[in-house]
């Protein structure tokens, strides 16, 4: 791999269809529109087909991935290290409840609903449906601002209806990033991606369903049962255990292999790992150990 | 038969196209701003949003242009500038009422050739800046071109077949009675799809999509960016306007003069396209190409066969 | 006017054709070739063969754009970072091109062209088409079909995966097993 003007050149390798063609190494992230912030994908591209992908989470110090692991994290990556000291925003109510603080079921449902709306906003933006993305984000903002169950339901139901009924969206996202339940469990995925047991479209449907359910219960004031196992927006939350998003990162490389660039973006958006979770747990571990 | 327009029309044409393009971009910006809450909001707010595209243009013009490392600047510049030029050249055969700047005997082929120049333009703009994302954007447009061009060519050939002429003026004349859209609905539908595809706009915006951070336009800045993205709006306006003489009877219509009918019909087509883009996500080419080749192309061939049989028996 | 247009297009066409040998980037060489071919299209229009000229512009633009697809496949460095030329035997190719150009130009200048008899036809494209193809329409149609059949056959022979790979040994799979799923769902 030569250098021209300080930039690495493309080299050659066999591609998905058995041809030997040029390929380019492209890092994606950590900052990109509608991208899980902090995530870095080291892609090997042939045309716009992802040949290999290695996952890195910026600022966590350990690189995870099946493909080759790139050692040096660039300076720019370190500048954007997420503040891992605070607890991950979307998991907050569940973590507090686990610590014994009284958290109402409504507050937990509100945060869960908003988290899924946030993910849906990114997902719709990446599939190129700006309108629905804007609607989902507006609903998320209203949910976090503390709106009532009735208003929130009125806001999210048109989004849910349109996304569920769109045959174009189903035709475009069906078969993209199929993650069987077995495979997901093997990698320790516990959240919506496990429930969906299928492609990007199935994962979106699980989110939509959870948003609809959550929106109706944001006013419930009974306390969250702390003895029950907490399930956050990305999956099971247990203090000190492997975070749910780690499982999502682990399945990414094999799902991305051989995907078109646009499909790769959709796969990432449909899993939507929360890098804050990983940073938080890593920090907690270093403190304990 | 279309009359020849006076020479000054050559200078008026680009100005008219730019005005229409800015108006459409404004309408689109209003709808985009209203998408968040599902309501357009007050008239005042709508006006503020409507002038946003104009403000963006000014902002880009005064902005410090940025360059990427080891870029091929001349190629990127040529690509960006070629797009509006191709759009205006294609518009030369567009009749306003019954007059076009130049009613070439092969107007339909001319339009098609100029629209193909956009392929080269987008690819050059994507290749030039030396950025992987913009390269992917430019690359995608070629895939899109291969997907939409086959049914598109058959659709416009069908209109020419119905009029037994490649001259746009004669195609309009042939629709004095019945519009082609009425008895060639499949060709009309395919044309509307490809009008969006050739302007890589709306559901076909993958070459400049969000997922590649702006694709072919990702690294363009300053005047280049204005030319490229403006050229895209011009191309959309021209492609939509060309459906009027081809399928919607051109200037034919009761009461109003010919030019008024052309303007009304063009505005209606553009409004439909702007509305339709908000209803669907971006169509990815690896999915669309199969639809285009397995469904749309045979459909267009059957439509052309039907028209040919009708014309032979006339 | 026509003479001026002729010279401008002719000089531009030759210069951009020669530049194909000078550029060291594949993209520049390709689009310089396209510029040369567009000038040729303009010259054909100047001859009064509007249809052929415009079709040359259309076909060549699409053709060069498709060449660009292969360019990305074989050389993924955007902006032509890696200096690269279009052809390997550059000197030989340049000599051959120069010789052919000189031969054709000499032919044009030296040939005893007949004077015009009668008047120019109203539609030269039509007349040219009739004289080229009129009596041989059947031959042309057969040739067209044969070419098309060749293209299809070549693709079928070249592809690694057949219908048994896609639909199973008994061809009964409900959904084809493709690396990338298509939009129709066959």
Question: How far from one another are the termini of chain C?
Answer: 58 Å
Q: Kindly state the mean pLDDT of chain C as a whole number?
A: 83
| Strand count of chain B | 2
Spans of chain C of 5+ residues with little confidence (pLDDT < 50)?
Answer: none
- Alpha carbon gyration radius of chain C: 23 Å
Secondary-structure element series of chain B: EHHHHEHHHHHHHH
The biggest sheet of chain B amounts to: 2 strands, parallel
Q: What is the SS-derived class of chain C?
A: mainly alpha
Give the largest interface pair and sizes. Answer: B-C, 42 and 32 residues
Main β-sheet description of chain C = none
What is the averaged pLDDT score of chain B?
86
Strand content of chain C: under 5%
For the biggest β-sheet of chain B, the strand order reads 1-2
Task: Give the assembly state of these chains.
Answer: heterotrimer
Quick tags:
heterotrimer; B: 314 residues; mainly alpha; two-stranded parallel sheet; 12 helices; 68% helix; C: 186 residues; 7 helices; 67% helix
């Amino acid at each position: 791999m030569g250098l021209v003007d300080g930039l690495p050149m493309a080299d050659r390798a066999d591609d998905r269809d058995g041809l030997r063609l040029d390929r380019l190494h492209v890092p994606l992230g950590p900052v990109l529109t509608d991208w899980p912030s902090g995530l870095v994908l080291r892609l090997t591209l042939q045309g716009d087909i992802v040949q290999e992908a290695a996952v890195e989470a910026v600022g966590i110090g350990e690189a995870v991935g099946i493909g080759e692991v790139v050692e040096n994290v660039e300076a720019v990556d370190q500048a954007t290290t997420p503040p891992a000291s605070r607890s991950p925003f979307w998991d907050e109510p569940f973590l507090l409840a686990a610590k014994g603080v009284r958290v109402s079921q409504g507050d937990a449902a509100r945060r869960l609903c908003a988290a899924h709306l946030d993910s849906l906003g990114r997902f719709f933006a990446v599939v190129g449906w700006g309108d629905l993305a804007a609607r989902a984000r507006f609903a998320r903002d209203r949910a976090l601002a503390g709106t009532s169950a009735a208003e929130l339901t009125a806001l999210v139901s048109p989004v849910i209806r349109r996304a569920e009924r769109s045959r174009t969206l189903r035709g475009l996202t069906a078969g993209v990033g199929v993650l069987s339940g077995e495979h997901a469990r093997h990698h320790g995925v516990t959240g919506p991606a496990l429930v969906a047991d299928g492609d990007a479209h199935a994962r979106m449907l699980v989110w939509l369903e959870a948003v609809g359910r959550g929106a109706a219960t944001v006013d419930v004031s009974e306390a969250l049962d702390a003895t029950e196992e907490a399930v956050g927006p990305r999956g099971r939350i247990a203090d000190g255990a492997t975070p749910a998003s780690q499982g999502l990162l682990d399945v990414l490389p094999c799902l991305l292999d051989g995907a078109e660039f646009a499909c790769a973006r959709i796969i990432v958006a449909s899993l939507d790992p929360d890098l804050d979770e990983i940073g938080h747990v890593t920090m907690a571990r270093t403190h304990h150990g | 038969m279309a009359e020849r327009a006076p020479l000054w029309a050559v200078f008026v044409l680009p100005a008219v196209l730019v005005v229409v393009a800015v108006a459409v971009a404004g309408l689109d910006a209003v709808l985009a701003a209203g998408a968040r809450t599902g309501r357009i909001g007050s008239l005042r707010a709508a006006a503020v949003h409507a002038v946003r595209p104009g403000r963006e243009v000014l902002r880009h013009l005064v902005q410090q242009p940025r360059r990427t490392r080891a870029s091929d600047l001349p190629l990127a510049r040529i690509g960006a500038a070629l797009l509006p030029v191709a759009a205006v050249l294609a518009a030369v055969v567009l009749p306003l009422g019954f007059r076009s700047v130049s009613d070439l005997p092969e107007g339909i082929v001319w339009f098609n050739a100029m629209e193909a120049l956009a392929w080269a333009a987008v690819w050059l703009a994507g290749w030039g800046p030396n950025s992987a994302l913009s390269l992917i954007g430019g690359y995608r447009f070629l895939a899109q071109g291969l997907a939409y061009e086959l049914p598109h060519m058959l659709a416009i050939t069908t209109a020419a077949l119905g009029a037994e002429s490649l001259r746009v003026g004669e195609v309009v004349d042939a629709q004095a009675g019945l519009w082609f859209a009425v008895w060639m609905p499949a060709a009309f539908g395919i044309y509307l799809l490809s009008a969006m595809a050739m302007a890589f706009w709306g559901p076909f915006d993958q070459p400049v999509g969000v997922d590649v951070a702006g694709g072919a336009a990702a690294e363009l800045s300053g005047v280049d960016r204005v030319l490229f993205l403006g050229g895209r709006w011009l191309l959309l306006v021209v492609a939509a306007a060309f459906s009027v003489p081809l399928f919607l009877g051109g200037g034919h219509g009761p009461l109003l003069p010919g030019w008024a009918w052309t303007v009304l019909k063009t505005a209606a087509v553009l409004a439909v396209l702007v509305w339709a883009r908000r209803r669907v996500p971006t169509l990815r080419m690896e999915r669309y190409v199969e639809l285009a080749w397995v469904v749309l192309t045979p459909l267009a061939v059957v439509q052309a066969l039907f028209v040919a049989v009708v014309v032979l028996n006339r | 006017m026509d003479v001026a247009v002729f010279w401008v297009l002719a000089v531009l066409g030759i210069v951009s054709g020669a530049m194909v040998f000078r550029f060291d980037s594949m993209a520049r060489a390709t689009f310089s070739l396209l510029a040369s071919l567009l000038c040729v299209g303009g010259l054909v229009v100047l001859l009064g063969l509007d249809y052929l000229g415009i079709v040359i512009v259309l076909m060549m633009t699409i053709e060069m754009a498709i060449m660009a697809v292969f360019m990305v496949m074989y050389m993924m460095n955007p902006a032509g970072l890696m200096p690269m030329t279009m052809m390997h035997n550059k000197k030989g190719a340049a000599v051959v091109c120069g010789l052919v150009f000189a031969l054709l130009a000499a032919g044009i200048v030296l040939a005893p062209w007949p004077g015009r008899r009668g008047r120019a036809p109203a539609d030269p494209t039509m007349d040219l088409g009739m004289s080229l193809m009129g009596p041989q329409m059947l031959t042309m149609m057969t040739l067209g079909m044969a070419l098309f059949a060749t293209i299809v056959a070549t693709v079928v022979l070249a592809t690694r995966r057949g219908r048994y790979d896609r639909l199973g040994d008994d061809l009964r799979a409900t959904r084809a097993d493709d690396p990338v799923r298509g939009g129709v769902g066959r």
